[in-house]
């Protein structure tokens, strides 16, 4: 069993493939905030793992690309 992540750790929800920041544990569920911001989602702790460097790189690149698209918008 993996140790519980610390607040701010980048984690991956293996059920959805989403990567986000660990926020808290509430009622036995993990709260995870999307890298790009937005609504947190809940995940079963058994479905969450610390993000690998590759997952982190992809998430950070996606965040940069999203910011770039927003700044180019109408």
Could you explain how this protein is built, in words?
With 74 residues, this protein is an alpha+beta fold. It has one domain (10-72). It has one helix and five strands; from the N terminus they run βββββα. It has one helix spanning 53-72; strands at 10-13, 19-26, 29-34, 41-43, 48-50. Strands 4-3-2-1-5 form a five-stranded antiparallel β-sheet. A hairpin with a 2-residue loop joins β2 and β3 (29-34). It starts with 9 loop residues before the first strand and ends with a helix.
In short, what is this structure?
27% of the residues lie in helices and 32% in strands.
Which terms would index this structure?
74 residues, alpha+beta, 5 strands
Compressed to H and E, one letter per element, the order equals: EEEEEH
Number of strands: 5
The first-to-last residue Cα distance is: 48 Å
- Discrete helix count: 1
Give the mean pLDDT: 89
Q: Please describe the biggest sheet, giving its number of strands, its sense, and whether it closes into a barrel.
A: 5 strands, antiparallel
Low-confidence stretches: none
Radius of gyration: 13 Å
Shape: elongated
Structural category is alpha+beta
Oligomer state equals single chain
Strand share of the residues? 25-35%
Widest sheet, order of strands? 4-3-2-1-5
Name the helicity range: 25-40%
Whole-number tally of structural domains: 1
